[in-house]
Amino acid sequence: MKVQDEAILHLQIAESIIEKIRSGEYRESEKIPSENELCRQFHVNRHVVRQAIARMTNLGWVTPVQGKGCYINRIMKPVQYVLSSQTRFSENMSNQGVPHKSKLLHWEAGLPSEEERTHLQLKKNETVYRLEILRYVDDTPMSVTTTVFPEAEVPGLENYFEGFHSLYGLLETYYQFRPVRSKSIFHASLPFLKDAKVLRIPESVPIVQIESLMNHPGGSPLEYSVARVRSDMHRCLIEF
User: Fold this and answer.
1) Is the pTM of this model over 0.85?
2) Best exposed site among 18, 194, 201, 234 by fewest CB in 10 Å?
3) What DSSP state is assigned to residue 65?
4) Which superkingdom is the protein from (predicted)?
5) Number of domains in the chain
6) H helical segments located in the chain
7) Both 85 and 196 in a single domain?
8) Euclidean distance between CA atoms 126 and 104, whole angstroms
């Protein structure tokens, strides 16, 4: 068997098993057929089967257990995320009846990067708050976002972090404004190791990166953010 044939075969085997999981023929927490059974079923050698299992493992479909076989993981259904000028994570999830929460992982105050300064139209000596926020859906991490505000727009922001659960709820309560989305740029990428860890995904599984700029209702830049979203949990609906 040629190497290129093996490469195609292991992909076909993985796709066949994934399709059976999607259709319900193989169910969550059940074992998929053993390596020997898969070898007989697809008429391939053990090396090809192990490549297929490795691919399904990296994509998050199965988990191998030493000496017992491969078990099917819980597969999250994609959550529809409505993207508009008024988008807010908490409202999006509440409107769908989806359990959710947000956690502030880290914050700092200091000088902006060149990119942040450009997007927010800041002078070189103006400082910013930089927040790292992890958002969960049904107790599963869905996205991690780095969001940046000019410090002058949200003075004393750190005084309101205790009991943090909603960024925009905090802004409305203590600063009486709500940012308005002016643009978002999407692209697929592989996660950095630190993002893969907090999102609980293999580093080989693609994510959707969303770079956004939010303005004051009057039009001046207010917030610059970069969200890294699990591609297996996210289905974006853009409203005009």
Assistant:
1) no
2) 194
3) E
4) Bacteria
5) 2
6) 3-23, 35-42, 46-58, 89-95, 114-120, 167-175, 193-199
7) yes
8) 23
